[in-house]
Amino acid sequence: MKDFEAKTSPKKKMDTESWFIECYRNNQGHPLRTLMHLYKGNYHKFVMAVICFFAKHACVWVLPIITANIINDVTAHNPDTFRNILFYSILEAGLILLNIPMNYLYTSYKSLATRYAETGLRKALIRKLQQLSISYHVETQSGRLQSKIMRDVEAVEGLSTQLFLSILNIALNIGVALVVTISKSRIVFIFFLLTTPVAAITMVTFRNIMKKRNTEFRKEMEETSARVMEMVELVPVTRAHALEDEEVSKMSGQLFAVAEKGYKLDLIQALFGSVGWAVFQIFQVICLAFTGYLAIGGKIQAGDITLYQSYFATVVNQVSSIVTLLPTIAKGIESVNSIGEVLLSEDIENNEGKEKLEQVTGTFDFEDVCFHYKNNEHNVLNHLNLHVKAGETIALVGESGAGKSTILNLVIGFHQAESGKVLIDGKDLSKIDLRTYRKHLAVVPQTSILFSGTIRDNITYGCENVSEEQLQNVIKAANLSDLIASLPKGLDTMVGEHGGKLSGGQRQRISIARALIRDPKVIVLDEATSALDSISEKLIQQALNNLTEGRTTFIVAHRLSTIRDADRIAVIADGHCTEYGTYDELMALKGEFYQLKQIQS
Fold this sequence. Notes:
The longest helix has 53 residues, at 244-296. This protein is of the alpha/beta class. The two termini are 61 Å apart. Helix 2 (16-26) runs antiparallel to helix 3 (31-38). The protein folds into two domains: 9-343, ABC transporter type 1, transmembrane domain (ABC transporter transmembrane region fold, Up-down Bundle), CATH 1.20.1560.10; 364-600, P-loop containing nucleotide triphosphate hydrolases (Rossmann fold). Helix content is 64%, strand content 9%. The chain has a six-stranded mixed beta sheet, sandwiched between helices. The protein has a four-stranded antiparallel beta sheet with strand order 2-1-4-5, with helices on one face. It is built from 22 helices and ten strands.
């Protein structure tokens, strides 16, 4: 793999992903120019590919000349006819055999360049997705992004192949045909040129219509991809509630919408192709009659009729190929623009040039913080003020929608305050490199997120040089010892896609272990014990209480019994803190927290 990377990647001052993003940024609104810049540093491979391409197709271009010369020798009773036939046969056979190594070299050079661009684009998209804000990901369906990474990049690679394979083939075929023709008969050459305006008029007529149809179809496919992914993830819920027919009906509507867009696209492509084909076939018949008339008049030799007919067929077929390629080119250009929607997005988490944190103690201050989500004018947080001491455990409670999870997202740095400040150790979170801050942070989300791999891989994700002793301590603390002991492969057991081979409680305990092994200074627990049974919850709670000692911990919990040991409890309502104190202090107040506790009792 490294050898292939070395062959394909030209030496650049910046990393490959940044290079591709710069290509898009410098050529906004010019998809073909963007495409050309994507191959900068690989142009020499295309030059070599052109040379090999010319050599491998020589047998095809020479054959009409050989055929015409043999016919002319036979009809003229040339005494050297047999010798000429032998020479021409050996020449053509040699050129045919030359096709084999030349085709291999051509494919090698061309593929190295196009595969480099394909891989580079995907890497650039993946890098960009890691930089885009959480708000962007929340508002954009994952199926659409997946479609851009796989389908659109594939379409761009197809566009490159068509431009540097089919277009090259077309250009060289037409060029050779016209050069040979003009060297033998200017009259026939002029006749050939008369077909060009017809081709141009045909292409211009349909270009804009095809572009519109391709855009509609691409967007509908992205929507379908997102819907399918959502449907697959919801299969257990659908099955549990006997909603299979409803889901099929809902997806059928989307599939028929795609079919309708595809049908309209197919029709315009079919009409375009058939009109072009019919026009050029008529001109081919006219060419046969015209060259026959010239031969009768003695202006060309009889054998040249075959020569001109072959070359005219070449020109006709190549121009027809251009017509056929236009939908593919239009689709590729649309995909270039589609990828640009992600690569050029400015909705990113920008950490460049900001202060880097070497150490974190864990003191937090929320100073008059206001925040609202995009497309929603209502503030989720309204002038929130909160002080959390280093090493303190603070529990956030309140009704759903009060702003508890938003506070956690501000702590993590997923969102930035619209007004006011969020300070960590006295430093404004919006002015520091969040990547360096998050190295001291561990998060256990409400819904456990595991990737396909082993239990060991999931626990040690992002951590290097973890000793076996550290790992075993974390496993014990997260109450995973019995589970791992019961599995034939222990820590090396595969968890399946999204941890599907494990129960909800087991997945959550692995998520907790993943957080604990980082030895963080700040811990964020969003309903971390919600998926555990009563016994496991008690054991995990006890372990968390021990392990959070000396670390600043933010807990969101709806079961108020799990936060009795928190140093402070903040009651959040209408986006601000209405009550703040210890469990006993808030119970003594008999305010909102007391009322919530009474409801759960």
